[in-house]
Amino acid sequence: MNQLKKITQEGKLSIGLVFPIESYHGSIAKMENQEKLAKRAEELGFKALWFRDVPFHDPTFGDNGQIYDPWIYMTHIMNHTKNIALASGSIILPLRHPVHTAKSIVSLQSLSGGRIIMGVASGDRPVEYPAFNQNIHNKTELFQDSFFYLKALMEEFPRYKSKFYGEVYGGADLLPKHEHQTSFLVTGHSGQSLEWIAENADGWLYYPRDFNTLQITMQRWKDTLDTKAQSWKPFAQSLYIDLLENKESKPKPIHLGFKAGVDYTLNHLKALESHGVNHVILNLKYGSRPAEEVLEELGKYILPEFS
């Protein structure tokens, strides 16, 4: 079964986690006990584990993700879990050759039994582009060219002429072949119009916004899908939370999220569901409690409401 369809449903909300599954100060996580926490997240009923693609540590950005290469770390976590979806959030297409990206995807799909979901992006850290000998001013075109090349490589004996990355003539095939379709979610706009995303992506991955902005965004997404004669496609977003010990604690804002007790957190997620959000990726970076405690509380009070 298509993994994205397995974890998202129209009118319903599912919940995932992004690595590192820990709270930490600064930009570099400790990455301790992540395998154990990933296993527990699967047992509790989280629907997906998300992996960042951050080639370089840029101290001017707030965090460095899970530190390790996303393909290698995804493989590592794959071998410590059983069925939970493994998703990239997000692979920076302009900074990776599409053939290598496609080879990694089909390999992981085959080895995992089809557990992979691809979030893709154009990247937002200017320091990275010169290191890859790419012009950041071309990132919109680079992303689109890489996206189409990548999709072409998934076909039998592909044919595609790329402006930036090369050409396949149909005389070579990419192995391994797998029985599982790979879904692609575009992150943010990645330099593309919403019309392009609606027509070419399998879903849209966006950022936390206030409810008024979210309502406008969701309406634009639905209208654009209609305009492009597309059926429903899922909308996912990230959300930073600091789950406080007092269940009744009122919310206070933190970067791209809030600190609050379980009661408000549940109401907030229910509101996201009512607005049409289909998947929320929780980030625990700014938490004030151990991740182990937060997972157990989410599993007890929150996840059963979205099963």
Task: Describe the overall structure.
This protein is an alpha/beta fold. It has one domain (3-306): TIM Barrel (Alpha-Beta Barrel), CATH 3.20.20. Helices cover 36% and strands 20% of the residues. The protein contains ten helices and twelve strands. α2 packs parallel to α10, α3 (70-78) runs parallel beside α4 and α7 (194-200) packs across α8 (211-227).
Provide a brief overview of the structure.
The chain has 307 residues and is of the alpha/beta class.
Task: Spell out the blueprint of helices and strands.
Elements: H1 3-7, E1 14-18, H2 34-44, E2 48-51, H3 70-78, E3 85-92, H4 98-112, E4 116-121, H5 128-131, H6 139-153, E5 159-162, E6 166-169, E7 184-187, H7 194-200, E8 203-206, H8 211-227, E9 235-243, E10 252-254, E11 257-260, H9 262-275, E12 279-283, H10 291-302
CATH architecture: Alpha-Beta Barrel
Integer count of domains: 1
The largest β sheet comes out as:
8 strands, parallel, barrel
Mean pLDDT: 96
Q: Got a strand count?
A: 12
Q: What is the 3D form? A: globular
Q: What is the CATH superfamily classification? A: Luciferase-like domain
How far apart the termini lie comes to: 18 Å
| Alpha plus pi helix count | 10
Stretches where pLDDT is under 50 for at least 5 consecutive residues are: none
- Please identify the structural class as seen in this structure: alpha/beta
CATH T-level topology:
TIM Barrel
Instruction: Identify the strand order in the major beta sheet.
Output: 1-2-3-4-7-8-9-12
Please name the defining characteristics of this protein:
307 residues; alpha/beta; TIM Barrel; two-stranded antiparallel ribbon; 12 strands; 36% helix
